[in-house]
Design goal:
Order of helices and strands: HHH
Shape: elongated
Structural class: mainly alpha
Strand content: under 5%
Distance between the termini: 41 Å
């Protein structure tokens, strides 16, 4: 889920440049998907850390849980910056008229 959170917006941007009927502003629909994937990555990492602690670290995977948490945070940050960019663009469009 962390990889999906980080990759959602860049994949949308690449698709908007390659597909004729999709504009860059249409990629704004990828922002909530990336945010949801980031939140779910954080929840999965939290559950994994709990399982690792319950099994006295015999379950393994502490590195994967840490990586998932970092990717989830990065995905949420990308979604927030994308939403700020889209919001600022809409503000400029409204102030232009």
């Amino acid at each position: 889920m962390g990889i999906a959170a980080v990759a959602t917006i860049p994949v949308g941007v690449v698709l908007s440049s390659r597909l004729a009927g999709v504009s860059l502003l249409d990629v704004a629909w990828a922002i909530p998907v990336g945010a949801a994937a980031g939140v779910s990555a954080l929840l999965f990492a939290r559950g994994a850390r709990g399982r690792i602690q319950r099994t006295l670290e015999r379950a393994g995977g502490a590195g994967r849980a840490r990586t998932g948490r970092l990717l989830g945070i990065a995905g949420i940050c990308m979604a927030l910056s994308g939403s700020i960019a889209v919001g600022f663009y809409e503000l400029l469009v409204r102030l232009e008229h």
